[in-house]
Amino acid sequence: MLYQDTIDSEVLVHKPWFVASTFAVVLALFLMYNLTGTTMGELMRPVIGDPSQSGLYGRFAIAFVIAVAFSLNLVLIGFAPIKAQIILVWLELLLLILAFFKSFELSLPFIRENLPFLITQGVFTTLYVSAISLLFASLIAIIAAVAKLSSNGFAYGIASFYTSFFRGLPLLMQIYLIYLGLPQFGIVLNAVPSGILALSVCIGAYMTEIFRSGIQSIDRGQWEASRSMGFGFGLTMRRIILPQALPVIVPPMGNTFISMLKDSSLVSVLGVWELTFLARTIGQPTFHNMEMLVAASLIYWVLSCCLELIQSKIERHYSRSKLR
Amino acid sequence: MIASNSQLLNGLGGGNLSPENGNMLHVAPLSSQEPSNQKQVPMTADKIIEATNVSKWYGSFRALTDVNLTVRKGERIVICGPSGSGKSTLIRCFNRLEAHQEGEITVNGIRLHSKMRNVTDVRKNVGMVFQHFNLFPHMTVLMNCMAGPMWMKGLSESEAKKTALKFLERVRIPEQANKYPVQLSGGQQQRVAIARSLCMEPAVMLFDEPTSALDPEMVSEVLETMTSLARDGMTMVCVTHEMGFARAVADRVIFMDRGQIVEQGAPNEFFTNPQHDRTKLFLSQILKH
Predict the structure, then answer these.
(1) Strand runs (DSSP E) across A140-266, as ranges?
(2) Are residues B123 and A244, on separate chains, in Cβ contact within 8 Å?
(3) Do the Cβ atoms of A191 and A267 come closer than 8 Å?
(4) Is A83 in CB contact (< 8 Å) with chain B?
(5) Which of A54, A94, B48, B59 is the most exposed place for a label (fewest CB within 10 A)?
């Protein structure tokens, strides 16, 4: 949370002008859509009579009920303590998303039947490809970041060319270049190692910049104090600078990890049996495309939620030395 | 400033004073009637720091001009002067946080130069205390003090801890050992910084305006710590504007302006009878309040 002001201001969702204007906006929005033919119309039958015959009156009644429900919901949640507010908002949004998916009329038995294989094979492959790439990317990034900060022209040249090239090229192209291009030099890599290599160098390039900015964010005085005690470059970096840079680095790193988890789906073009590839190939023959894609998306979401949790754990761990 | 030091003023002997622009070597106090806390440093004592004709440029700006200074073992030197006069730059050259371009600096028998491989040997023997403390915020106070002995001197963890606690005791904050630096007051942090340097058992301590970033009420606790260090015979070079401290503990006060040593002498002589107009102006400015 931001550093909060001490002045008690009235809750926004309890301000009459705010409630009134959200009510008006929602009413206007739903007036634009004809909902008389939906479940909503059926529910309103006792009031508006036969939905299909109700005309403008029916549309208005439905929009009015939705707007009232929406505004009431807003006001009521406003009374809850903050933790409950967060949970309630999450639950409601989740319900909306599920309702959205439900509108595709997905075949649940088909999902249930294929989910185990999607997880044992697909999730497993996605996870280990991502984890290994992540490890390599971090190693590359630390070396490249130090090179980019060095006064050595060669090191700087190589590192800056590396970040420029691999951040500049589309990841899909890099995957093709490594899988199809390297054999020109007699280096033939299988699909999985090619994918890992491509992901590592690409994510490594992004992380180089994260590490560099993190290292640079540390006060010069820390270097001076460390040097004045005789610590060499390696020791200073390892024990003084990097531990302090980590808390700065963690949020953007979490960001990169999450996006890399999903970028790993690009490896599917090489025929690696990871989550996206399996979702597509299982769904296609029986035209159950949406089922598998929705299931895979939700799995990606769950995985990135785990990463988010880990990130917030680490952030909390590092806030320790900042506590007063 | 610490309280009235007039009694010390009278007790201090005069050193001989050179009006030349810094082209002067060491001046030891010659007095026979020094106060009890002042040990006389003989001219024959080992030279810990010897700077001859040191010059330094930042781009085209000349930060130091032909500075000559000798610090002998056990000597306490206070450097003062207006801001931008090169005081900090000079002492930062002594442990080679800054490089000088001309002249020679020898610290503890090792000549400092740009191609040196043994800068670590110098830095291990030169403690430095900074204006902004520069404690390592991710380590506890204890670990701040243990790091040097463990990583540079190869002490075991238990030995390092013993050393650290000894010096934390010395600066009178052993009870804060397990806290993090941000949990301490400015004065306490600076005392930890002093302890951290002491843990390396250096031959000389450099202080770079150690009290300028402190609240007024915390200045005295740091100055007291420094005074007691001085009494124990630690060789010290302090850049400070605390004239009371200078009067009480310095063997020599050096006044710098525009990268040059303008005037130097024993505190008594320096404060009561400054030779240069620039020094007189400076002293009148800072003693006015």
Answers:
(1) none
(2) no
(3) yes
(4) no
(5) B59
Query: Is the model's pLDDT at A80 over the cut of 80?
Result: yes
Could you tell me which chain B residue has the CA closest to the CA of A320? B138
**Nearest chain B alpha carbon to A234:** B151
> Structurally, how many domains does chain B consist of?
1
CATH H superfamily, domain A108-323: MetI-like (1.10.3720.10)
> Is residue B1 in a domain?
no
CA distance B97 to B68: 19
Contact (CB<8Å) B183/A323:
yes
**B17: pLDDT strictly greater than 80:** no
Q: Give contacts of B128 with chain A, Cβ < 8 Å.
A: 224-225, 228
Within 8 A by CB and 6+ apart from B6, the residues are none
**Which residue, among A148, A316, A151, has the nearest Cα to A247 in the 3D structure?**
A316
List Cβ neighbours of B163 (8 Å cut-off, separation of 6 or more): B145, B146, B149, B155, B199
Q: Is A184 left (phi over 0), alpha (psi -120 to 50) or beta?
A: alpha
Task: Outline which parts of chain A fall under CATH 1.10.3720.10.
Answer: 108-323
**Residue B23 clears pLDDT 60, i.e. is over it:** no
Tell me whether strands B110-112 and B126-129 are parallel, antiparallel or unpaired. unpaired
Q: What SS3 state is found at B224?
A: helix
CB contact residues (below 8 A), chain A span 217-246, against chain B = 219, 221-222, 224-232, 235, 239-240, 243-244
Would you call B128 and A244 a contact, using CB atoms and an 8 Å cutoff? no
Given A225, A232, A243, which is nearest B138 (Cβ)? A243
Condensed to tens digits (0 to 9), the pLDDT of residues A159-173 reads 999 999 999 999 999
Nearest CA in chain A to B129: A225
pLDDT at position B40 is: 60
**ipTM (interface predicted TM):** 0.82
